[in-house]
C-alpha cells in the first residue's frame, strides 16, 4: 500500500502532461482546417468584390466583439452542444446517429406541451418538463437501436427516415392536438414563469440553457470514461469482436448509445422551447440536429471538442449576421466557411500533407478512414 | 553498371545469372524503420529463404518488391536492369508473381476462371472460356501442378487452392515467385507436395523467394537463407550448412530454447472442462463442429491438432461461451454451463485466449490498462455502483504487465502500438492473472516471435503444474506435441483420433487429412 501511495504524485503529474499533449494533438487538426477554410473563404470574398480583412473583422467582431454579440454566440451555441453530443455518444459505440433533427423535435414538442399544461406549477415545471424531454426522446432514440439489433436495419437509414417521422409528428401535434387559438399555426405560448431565465440583460437573450448544455457535456464525459456503461459503449464501438468476447452485450449497448444520444438532442429541443422560443411554431427552427453532425465531427466526438465545435458553429452563425450588416457579403458565406471547415476536417489525408503524417496518427480520433458507413 | 554488380552478386551460387537484386532498400513508417539498408540477390533457379520473426521486416520488403509500398531509398534491379515498381501491375510486367498468405481467389468461380481473371483470353468481345481452360491445362501440364480447370475453387482443398494461386502467377509469366508464409495453412503432407512442386519450378528456371518464420522448413528446400532481424539483414547462410539452433540464434539474437522441458503430468483425474456431443454452427450456418466430446482433467494439457478451418475456432468459442451451441452440452467443474454466457463462465474460472488477438483478444485502440480489465471492469475493485476507477485499473495493470514481461509495461500505451508478441503477452497477462481453473488457449503463439513463444509455452506449463486444466488448440504440430499430454485431431468438425505426444508426423498428418 505504502508503495502504491508513493507513486501517486508522480503519476498525477504524468497524467496531466499526457492529457495536455493529447489535447494539443487533438486541436491541431480542427485548427488547421479552420485556418485553411478562412484562406479559401478569403478568395471567395475577393471574388465577390469585397475586402476579406474588413469582412473577417466584421465576422469575428460580430461573434465575439461585444457583450451582446458574445451573448448571441452563446445563444446559438447551446443547441449545437446538445445535438453534437447526440452524435458523439452514438459514434463512441460505432454508430452514426443522423437522427438528431427528429430527436430534437420530439424533445421540443414534449416541452411545448408540458410547459403549457404544467404551467400551474410555475418554475417547478421547468425541471419536470426537461426530464420529460429526456424520457420521450430517449424512447424515440431507442427505436433505431431496436430496429438494428432485432432486424439488422442500418442506423444511418433508420435515423434519417425517423427524422421525417419525428418532425412531422411534432408538427401534427402542434397543429392539431396542441394548437393554440388564433391564426398562427403552432402551440400555445408558455408562461414566462416556466421559461429558463436569461443570464443577464447585458448578454441579450442567452439563458441558463447554456449551463445545462455544459453540464450535459460533463455528464457525457463522465459517462464515457468513468462509468461501466461508458466503458462498454467505447469497447463495443472500437471492437465489437473483443467486446463480445469479453462478455459485453452488443445489443444492449447499441440501443443505449443511440437512446442516450437521442435524449441529449431531445433535451436540446426542450431547452430551445423553454429558453428561447416559448412555443413550437410551424415551421419550427430547422437544421439544429443536422448541424450536430458537423459539430461532432469538428469536435472529434469528444465532449470537450463538441463544446468547442459548437462554439465555432455558434460564432460563425452569430458573426455572419453582423457581417451582413457591415459588408455586402451575404449570410451564406458563413455556411460556405462551415462547409469548407468540415470538408477539411474530414479530409485527413489533406491535412496530413500539411502537418505531416506522424501528426495524423497522433491525433487520429474519429477513425473515419476505417469506413463503416 | 548494373551488369557489373550482377556479376559480383552471382559469385555465391554456381555462376547462375542474377535475376533480381534489391540494393540498400530503406523504408520507414514514422519513427519505425521497417527496412534498413536491406540488400539481397536472387539467382536464376534458386530458392531463397527469407527468415525472420514477425515484424522483422520480411513482408515490408516483399511489399516493396511487389509495388505495394514505395521505398524511401534503395534500388531494384530485374535482370540487371534498374526498375521502378510503382504498383503490382509494374511488378507483374517485370515477371514478379506473389502468392499471399491469404488467398485472393474467388471461391464461386472455376479454377480456369480464377487463373485468367484480369487477363482473360477473348474471342471478339466475349470471354474465351475454352481458351482459358486450355491455357490452364497447358500450364498445369508443363509445371506438373495437377488441377482440374473446371472445378469450382470453393470445392478445393487449401493445398490445391494454393496451387491455383501459383498457376495464376505463372499464367502471367512470372519468372520470380514470392511465397509469403505458404505452409501456414497446409498439412505436413501438403507441405511435402508444395516443396516438390517448388523444386520442379526452379528446375524449370524460375526463381523463388520463400518467406517464413518456421526454422526447420527451409533446411530441406532452400538454397540460401537470408535472416532478417529488426529490419536489418543479419546474415546469409547456406541452407545445407546450417541447423535450426543457429537459425534461431540469428533470428532472435540470442540462444533460444527450442523445446520446452516438460515435467511429468500431475493430472489428478478430476475433470474440469468437458463437452458432450457438441454441435456448433459457423458464421455461414454450416455445421462447423458436429458432435465433439472431450474432457480435460486438472493438471493436464489436451492438445487439439488439425488443419485450419476444421472447426477449431467454433469449438473454442462454444466452450468459452462467445458462440451459441446448436446441440450438446458444456460442463465446467461438473456444472452444466451450456446456457451461460461468456461472462458467467469466466466468473466460474474459465480463461480464454482467443486465436485472433487483434479483433477479439484486445481492443486495439484501448489503453493497456483498459484491455487488462476488459473482463473484470464490472466488479470491485475496478468498479462500484456503476462507476469505474481508472486509477486502480492503471495501478494493477502496471504490475500485471511487468509480471508478464509486456514491453513496454506502460499501462497507458495503446494496445495497437505493441508488437504481436507483446500483444499476445498482454492477453495472456489478463487471462492468467485472474488465477483461472480452466484455460482455453487457441493458437496462443500465432504470429508471435520465437522469444515470446518460449515465454508463452513456459507460462502454460507453469499453469499446468499448478493443476489447471488446459485446452490447447494449435496449427503448429511441434507446439502441440511438445506441450500436450494427450492430443486429439479435428477433421471436418469431428474428432478423428486421439494420440499421445509421441505420435509421429505421419500419424498426425494422416489424421489431419481425415484418414482414420
Annotation keywords:
heterodimer; A: 373 residues; mainly alpha; disordered N terminus; B: alpha/beta; Rossmann fold; 3 domains
Describe the structure.
The complex is a heterodimer of chains A (373) and B (516). Chain A has 373 residues and is mostly helical. In chain A, helix 2 (52-64) packs across helix 12 (303-326). Chain A has helices spanning 2-47, 52-64, 67-92, 100-117, 125-151, 155-175, 209-226, 228-238, 240-245, 250-277, 288-298, 303-326, 332-346, 348-355, 357-363. The longest helix of chain A has 46 residues, at 2-47. Chain A has a single domain (51-327), classed as Orthogonal Bundle (ABC transporter involved in vitamin B12 uptake, BtuC). Chain A is globular. Chain B folds into 3 domains: 2-95 and 175-251, 3-Layer(aba) Sandwich (Rossmann fold), CATH 3.40.50.300; 104-173, no CATH class; 271-359 and 435-512, Rossmann fold (3-Layer(aba) Sandwich). In chain B, helix 15 runs parallel beside helix 16 (450-465). In chain B, 49% of the residues are buried. In chain B, strand 1 (18-29) and strand 2 (32-43) form a beta hairpin. Chain B is of the alpha/beta class and 516 residues long. Chain B is globular, with a radius of gyration of 25 Å. Chain B has 18 helices and 24 strands. Classes of the chains: A mainly alpha (373), B alpha/beta (516). The A-B interface holds A 4, 7, 11, 18, 225-231, 234-235, 238-239, 241-248, 357-358, 361, 367 and B 30-31, 320-322, 341-344, 346, 352, 354, 356, 359-366, 370, 374-375, 377-378, 383, 386-388, 390-391, 394-395, 412.
Amino acid at each position: 500500500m505504502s508503495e502504491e501511495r508513493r507513486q501517486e504524485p508522480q503519476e498525477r503529474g504524468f497524467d496531466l502532461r499526457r492529457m495536455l499533449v493529447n489535447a494539443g494533438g487533438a486541436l491541431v487538426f480542427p485548427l488547421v482546417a479552420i485556418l485553411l477554410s478562412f484562406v479559401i473563404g478569403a478568395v471567395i470574398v475577393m471574388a465577390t468584390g469585397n475586402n476579406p480583412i474588413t469582412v473577417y473583422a466584421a465576422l469575428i467582431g460580430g461573434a465575439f466583439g461585444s457583450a451582446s454579440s458574445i451573448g448571441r454566440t452563446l445563444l446559438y451555441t447551446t443547441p449545437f452542444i446538445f445535438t453534437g453530443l447526440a452524435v458523439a455518444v452514438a459514434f463512441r459505440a460505432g454508430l452514426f446517429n443522423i437522427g438528431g433533427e427528429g430527436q430534437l423535435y420530439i424533445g421540443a414538442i414534449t416541452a411545448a406541451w408540458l410547459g403549457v399544461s404544467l404551467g400551474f406549477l410555475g418554475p417547478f415545471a421547468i425541471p419536470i418538463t426537461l426530464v420529460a424531454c429526456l424520457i420521450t426522446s430517449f424512447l424515440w432514440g431507442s427505436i433505431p437501436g431496436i430496429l438494428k439489433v432485432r432486424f439488422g436495419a442500418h442506423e444511418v437509414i433508420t435515423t434519417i427516415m425517423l427524422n421525417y417521422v419525428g418532425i412531422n409528428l411534432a408538427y401534427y401535434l402542434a397543429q392539431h392536438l396542441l394548437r393554440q387559438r388564433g391564426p398562427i399555426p403552432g402551440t400555445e405560448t408558455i408562461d414566462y414563469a416556466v421559461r429558463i431565465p436569461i443570464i443577464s440583460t447585458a448578454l441579450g437573450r442567452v439563458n441558463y440553457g447554456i449551463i445545462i448544455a455544459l453540464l450535459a457535456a460533463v455528464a457525457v464525459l463522465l459517462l464515457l470514461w468513468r462509468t461501466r456503461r461508458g466503458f462498454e459503449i467505447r469497447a463495443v464501438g472500437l471492437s465489437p469482436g473483443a467486446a463480445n468476447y469479453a462478455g459485453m452485450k452488443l445489443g444492449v449497448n447499441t440501443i443505449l448509445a443511440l437512446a442516450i444520444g437521442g435524449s441529449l438532442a431531445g433535451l436540446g429541443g426542450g431547452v430551445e422551447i423553454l429558453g428561447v422560443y416559448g412555443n413550437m411554431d410551424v415551421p419550427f427552427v430547422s437544421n439544429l440536429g443536422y448541424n450536430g453532425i458537423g459539430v461532432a465531427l469538428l469536435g472529434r466526438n469528444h465532449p470537450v471538442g463538441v463544446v468547442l465545435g459548437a462554439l465555432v458553429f455558434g460564432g460563425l452563425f452569430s458573426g455572419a449576421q453582423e457581417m451582413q450588416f457591415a459588408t455586402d457579403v451575404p449570410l451564406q458565406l458563413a455556411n460556405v466557411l462551415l462547409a469548407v471547415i468540415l470538408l477539411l476536417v474530414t479530409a485527413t489525408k489533406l491535412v496530413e500533407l500539411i502537418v505531416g503524417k506522424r501528426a495524423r496518427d497522433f491525433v487520429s480520433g474519429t477513425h473515419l478512414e476505417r469506413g463503416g458507413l | 553498371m548494373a551488369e557489373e554488380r550482377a556479376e559480383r552478386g552471382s559469385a555465391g551460387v554456381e555462376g547462375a545469372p542474377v535475376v533480381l537484386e534489391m540494393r540498400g532498400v530503406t523504408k520507414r513508417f514514422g519513427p519505425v524503420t521497417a527496412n534498413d539498408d536491406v540488400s539481397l540477390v536472387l539467382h536464376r533457379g534458386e530458392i531463397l529463404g527469407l527468415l525472420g520473426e514477425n515484424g522483422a521486416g520480411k513482408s515490408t520488403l516483399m511489399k516493396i518488391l511487389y509495388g505495394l509500398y514505395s521505398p524511401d531509398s534503395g534500388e531494384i534491379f530485374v535482370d540487371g536492369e534498374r526498375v521502378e515498381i510503382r504498383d503490382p501491375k509494374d511488378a507483374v510486367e517485370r515477371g514478379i508473381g506473389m502468392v499471399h498468405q491469404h488467398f485472393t481467389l474467388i471461391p464461386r468461380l472455376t479454377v480456369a476462371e480464377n487463373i485468367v481473371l484480369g487477363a482473360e483470353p477473348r474471342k471478339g468481345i466475349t470471354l474465351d472460356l475454352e481458351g482459358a481452360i486450355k491455357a490452364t491445362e497447358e500450364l498445369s501440364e508443363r509445371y506438373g501442378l495437377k488441377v482440374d480447370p473446371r472445378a469450382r475453387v470453393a470445392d478445393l482443398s487449401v493445398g490445391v487452392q494454393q496451387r491455383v494461386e501459383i498457376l495464376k502467377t505463372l499464367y502471367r509469366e512470372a519468372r520470380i515467385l514470392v511465397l509469403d508464409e505458404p505452409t501456414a495453412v497446409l498439412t505436413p503432407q501438403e507441405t511435402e507436395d508444395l516443396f516438390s512442386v517448388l523444386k520442379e519450378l526452379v528446375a524449370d528456371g524460375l526463381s523463388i523467394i520463400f518467406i517464413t518464420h518456421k526454422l526447420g522448413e527451409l533446411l530441406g528446400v532452400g538454397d540460401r537463407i537470408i535472416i532478417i532481424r529488426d529490419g536489418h539483414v543479419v546474415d546469409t547462410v547456406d541452407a545445407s550448412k546450417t541447423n535450426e539452433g543457429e537459425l534461431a540464434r540469428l533470428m532472435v539474437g540470442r540462444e533460444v530454447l527450442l523445446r520446452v522441458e516438460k515435467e511429468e503430468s500431475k493430472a489428478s483425474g478430476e475433470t474440469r472442462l468437458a463437452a458432450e456431443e457438441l454441435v456448433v454452427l459457423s458464421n455461414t450456418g454450416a455445421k462447423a463442429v458436429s458432435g465433439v466430446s472431450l474432457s480435460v482433467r486438472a493438471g493436464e494439457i489436451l492438445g487439439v491438432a488439425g488443419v485450419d478451418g476444421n472447426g477449431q475456432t467454433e469449438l473454442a468459442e462454444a466452450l468459452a461461451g462467445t458462440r451459441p451451441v446448436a446441440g450438446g452440452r458444456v460442463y465446467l467443474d461438473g456444472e452444466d454451463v451450456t446456457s451461460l454466457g461468456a461472462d458467467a463462465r469466466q466468473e466460474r474460472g474459465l480463461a480464454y485466449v482467443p486465436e485472433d488477438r487483434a479483433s477479439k483478444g484486445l481492443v486495439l485502440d484501448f489503453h493497456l490498462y483498459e484491455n487488462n480489465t476488459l473482463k473484470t471492469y464490472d466488479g470491485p475493485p475496478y468498479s462500484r455502483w456503476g462507476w469505474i476507477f481508472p486509477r486502480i485499473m492503471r495501478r494493477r495493470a502496471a504490475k500485471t504487465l511487468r509480471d508478464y514481461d509486456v514491453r513496454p509495461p506502460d499501462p497507458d500505451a495503446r494496445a495497437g502500438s505493441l508488437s504481436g508478441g507483446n500483444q499476445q503477452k498482454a492477453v495472456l497477462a489478463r487471462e492468467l492473472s485472474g488465477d483461472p481453473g480452466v484455460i482455453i488457449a487457441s493458437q496462443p503463439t500465432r504470429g508471435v516471435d520465437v522469444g515470446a513463444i518460449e515465454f508463452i509455452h513456459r507460462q502454460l506449463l507453469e499453469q499446468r503444474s499448478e493443476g489447471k486444466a488446459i485446452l490447447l488448440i494449435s496449427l503448429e504440430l511441434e507446439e502441440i506435441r511438445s506441450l500436450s499430454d494427450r492430443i486429439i485431431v479435428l477433421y471436418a468438425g469431428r474428432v478423428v483420433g486421439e494420440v499421445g505426444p509421441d505420435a509421429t508426423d505421419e500419424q498426425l498428418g494422416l489424421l489431419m487429412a481425415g484418414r482414420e
